[in-house]
Write a structure and sequence with these properties.
mainly beta, about 150 residues, single chain
């Protein structure tokens, strides 16, 4: 299969419902979304490796950073902003296509907003740089969602 996914076709959603009955709402006014999924490196060092240091995968971590237009009338903007200001969680799905389209996939996780930086470029619209990371949730751990 050819590499034919375009960034503009990817979607960022927040859950306006419950975990068990999600109501995924598109955050349409975002740009330059970056989903980072990493794992720690656990070193396995013993004599059986003939002098080589070997590794196994440790704990996974994730973060999502994005820029959002400063639009206080947009539900996506206000939900992200309020989660930051109130220190509350927000469930997010960062998908490689529409969440209702079979085959779309991405990370679903309850997140905490760690930064919300307003940008006021002289010749640009006002935006906010946002950084979010998974936070503990009684319903489920972060998971890779495939529709």
């Amino acid at each position: 299969m050819a590499a034919d996914k375009r960034g503009l076709d990817c979607k960022l959603y927040y859950n306006a419902g419950t975990y068990g009955s999600p109501s995924w709402t598109l955050i349409a006014n975002v740009k330059d979304v970056t989903l980072s999924v990493e794992a720690t490196d656990i070193t396995v060092a013993n004599r059986s490796a003939s002098g080589w240091s070997e590794s196994i995968q440790g704990l996974k971590s994730a973060s999502i950073s994005f820029q959002i237009d400063w639009d206080t009338s947009a539900a996506g903007f206000t939900n992200v902003r309020d989660a930051f200001l109130n220190g509350t969680e927000i469930e997010i799905a960062s998908m490689d296509g529409a969440i209702a389209t079979s085959g779309s996939q991405g990370l679903r996780a309850t997140m905490i907003v760690l930064s919300f930086t307003r940008n006021e470029g002289l010749e640009d619209i006002v935006t906010a740089d946002v950084s979010i990371r998974p936070t503990p949730n009684a319903n489920a751990n972060p998971a890779w969602l495939t529709v």
